[in-house]
Amino acid sequence: MHEKYTRIASPELGRDVHLWQFGHFGPPVIVFPTAAGFAHEWQSQGMVEALAPLLRAGRLKLYCPESNVAEALTRKDNSPEWRIGRYQAYERFVLDTLVPYIRADCHSPNLRIATAGASLGALYSANMALKHPDTFWWSLCLSGRYELRPFLDGHDSLDVYLNNPLAYAYNLTGAALERVRQRARITLVCGQGKWEEGCIEETQELGAILAKKGISVHTDIWGNDVSHDWVWWKRQAQYHFHRRLG
Predict the structure, then answer these.
(1) Which of 8, 169, 210, 236 is the most exposed place for a label (fewest CB within 10 A)?
(2) Which domains does the chain possess?
(3) What SS3 state is found at 4?
(4) What is the DSSP string of 114-137?
């Protein structure tokens, strides 16, 4: 299987960003890591091997950047205002640096890209597709949290609202709503077992909002034995990537 490691200079974050790539051909997918934030996470957790048949067949290319989820959401060293600013800086990195890099790597300047992520990575994934459907055509979200404010100590502001799917999705109207309806496809997956508290409720709520808005959403709820864990995320990813790209 083709794999490549590189570091991309990010003016938006003020540092280099680690990036792992897997696959030689096929639709590109940006993978956002969980709260660990590591670029190599999907490889180390066996997700790349789980998707190897698609990667080897040229049906899929994975681009796995590190994220800044710790400084933005999980570490409390700085103020919520500073942390949401860092979240926005990472979004700018994705749009202004990573997307052009992927398009150049795929030799397609207008190529649309999919996103994927588990746990907090699902928040990053959903936000990208809902906010920028002209760039991102599909989002696979596994065991996600879609209410941003608890990760910012309850802080709310316009910046928080514009990155909080369970806030702004209620109010999508007009041209913005029509753009998402026409361009985006969202897949929300969650189990009902251990450690899925919060995730299951927010998955169902976001799925219901998007469906009511006429947005293409597939809310896929797995059983009571399905936990918030890699063993299940690998099975869910295999199922949905094969369903979409196989």
Answers:
(1) 8
(2) 3-245 (3.40.50.1820)
(3) strand
(4) EEEEETHHHHHHHHHHHH-TTTEE
